[in-house]
């Protein structure tokens, strides 16, 4: 099992910062905010009126037959965009491969929330007969993975993991295990989310989890800043093609980097709050290092989960210090790209792993924007406000979800 190396050969991004990997990356390293006043729903009665929306996205481009796309919730439409981009980027769409050994693992933290809302309204205000017969298959979180496999005829392992904001990292990590175990040669993996909907905004808002900085949305997501007041909702899709190294070499695929480590753990503590000491997150990062056979000082960059919540950012700071020791204060750079994208929930890990991969490619670390008064309890080098050229050999991406789900992925140059 351990002799099978796994590499990344394709990336696909649909995000508030751009609907392909190069636009996303250009805007990310420029420190541009993708947060704006919500246009898709009426927010008059809501405490938070802004989010990281995907704009100028045409789902018809990503379906061979858009009648299937019309029968898809927005999260599935976004997922198809991220997956198709990653597949084309990898060359799998034209390669002579055994499709029985190509899998799909694209998850979602929430799934078809808009479809559920709309059809529940039909049920309550009209009649049960007015509920669409497509409600269930459009709503269920696994349908994106299923539809991607149908679009390409991929017959290998197909699964949907739902672990809130850790969904993408778990999906990619478990796909890594499947390839290492020998049950697939390549897997399209990641996550998608589209929860900028009335129920999503009301539910998170009433938890007091969201920022209410309505007068300056672009400054609302401020991880590690002392004046942070909650996370900012985002939507989009982040997918990658991960592939067994020899399989990728044999077909002449472009290889971005190697996926060398994956860690996971539970806090077993609270429905939505992290362990205050960050010990669950630290165990997860240590496992990723162990799988990768790397020492803490071998990693130069951490893309932090850092959602801009008062408790979460401090807990992750403690976890990074516990994991990396003295290196956390001398040589390690940490940035929070959610400061620009908002929090894409189940899609966050896919987007943020792509940021790590592109950072390795271009040897530049994206910034944490909106650092105006860095919290002294978050005393890491968080690359404030401006991207930085850094010699990078390895990077780690963290994702932590409600329910105490922790997952970390580790990539390195090949």
Automatic annotation (TrEMBL):
The active site is at residue 165. This is 3-oxoacyl-[acyl-carrier-protein] synthase 2. GO terms for cellular component: cytosol. Pathway: Lipid metabolism; fatty acid biosynthesis. Pfam families: ketoacyl-synt, Ketoacyl-synt_C. The keyword Kinase does not apply. It comes from the Bacteria.
């Amino acid at each position: 099992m351990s002799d099978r190396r796994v590499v990344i050969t394709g990336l696909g991004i649909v995000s508030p910062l751009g609907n392909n990997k190069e636009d996303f990356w250009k805007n990310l390293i420029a420190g541009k905010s993708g947060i704006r006043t919500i246009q898709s729903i009426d927010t008059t009665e809501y405490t938070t009126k802004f989010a990281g929306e995907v704009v100028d996205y045409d789902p018809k481009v990503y379906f061979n037959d858009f009648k299937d796309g019309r029968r898809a919730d927005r999260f599935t439409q976004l997922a198809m965009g991220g997956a198709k981009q990653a597949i084309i980027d990898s060359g799998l769409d034209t390669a002579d491969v055994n499709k029985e050994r190509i899998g799909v693992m694209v998850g979602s933290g929430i799934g078809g929330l808009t479809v559920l809302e709309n059809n529940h309204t039909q049920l309550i205000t009209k009649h049960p007969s007015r509920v669409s017969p497509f409600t269930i298959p459009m709503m269920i979180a696994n349908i994106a993975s299923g539809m991607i496999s149908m679009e390409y005829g991929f017959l290998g392992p197909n699964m949907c993991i739902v672990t809130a904001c850790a969904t993408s990292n778990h999906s990619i990590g478990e796909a890594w295990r499947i390839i290492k175990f020998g049950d697939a040669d390549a897997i399209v993996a990641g996550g998608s989310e589209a929860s900028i909907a009335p129920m999503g905004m009301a539910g998170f808002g009433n938890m007091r989890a969201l920022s209410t900085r309505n007068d300056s949305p672009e400054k609302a997501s401020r991880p590690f800043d002392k004046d942070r007041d909650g996370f900012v909702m985002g939507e989009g899709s982040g997918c990658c093609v991960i592939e067994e190294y020899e399989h990728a070499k044999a077909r002449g695929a472009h290889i971005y980097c190697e996926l060398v480590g994956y860690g996971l753990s539970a806090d077993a503590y609270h429905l939505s709050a992290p362990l205050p000491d960050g010990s669950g997150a630290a165990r997860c990062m240590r496992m990723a290092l162990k799988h990768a056979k790397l020492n803490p000082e071998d990693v130069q960059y951490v893309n932090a989960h850092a959602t801009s919540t008062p408790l979460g950012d401090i807990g992750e700071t403690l976890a990074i210090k516990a994991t990396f020791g003295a290196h956390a204060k001398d040589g390690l750079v940490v940035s929070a790209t959610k400061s620009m994208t908002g929090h894409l929930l189940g899609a966050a890990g896919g987007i943020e792993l792509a940021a790590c991969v592109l950072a390795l490619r271009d040897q530049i670390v994206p910034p944490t924007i909106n650092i105006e008064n860095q919290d002294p309890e978050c005393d890491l080098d968080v690359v404030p406000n401006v991207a930085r050229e850094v010699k990078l050999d390895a990077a780690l991406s963290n994702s932590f979800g409600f329910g105490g789900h922790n997952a970390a992925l580790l990539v390195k140059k090949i």
